[in-house]
Design goal:
The protein is α+β, with helices and mostly antiparallel strands. It contains 2 helices and 5 strands, in the order E-E-H-E-E-E-H.
């Protein structure tokens, strides 16, 4: 399961996320970036608060290709994230571990 690490918000909806659950758990299970520009339309979304409108979650891999973490960014604006954001965040996440 994922354990929520460094976190910034007034509410912590859950301290743990099971594989396949929510945007982060799905990112981990599928080993691929999840870009959700309208979270209210996402059937598997776990709400952290009532103001998040969009979310991007990027897997962080170890040297063996296993997901060791996910990097999650929320936005207060729908349709906030694009393919350029995805590419750049994925590049940043390559250097995390």
């Amino acid at each position: 399961m994922l354990e929520i690490g460094p976190y910034q918000s007034d509410i912590l909806a859950t301290a743990h996320i099971l594989i396949g659950k929510g945007v982060c758990g799905t990112c981990w299970k599928k080993k691929e970036t999840r870009l959700i520009n309208r979270v209210k339309e996402c059937k598997n979304y776990i709400a952290c608060d009532n103001v998040t409108k969009a979310e991007i979650c990027v897997p962080v891999f170890d040297k063996h290709g296993e997901v060791k973490a996910v990097f999650d960014v929320d936005s207060l604006v729908e349709d906030c994230f694009c393919s350029v954001d995805q590419t750049n965040i994925e590049l940043i996440c390559r250097d995390f571990l």
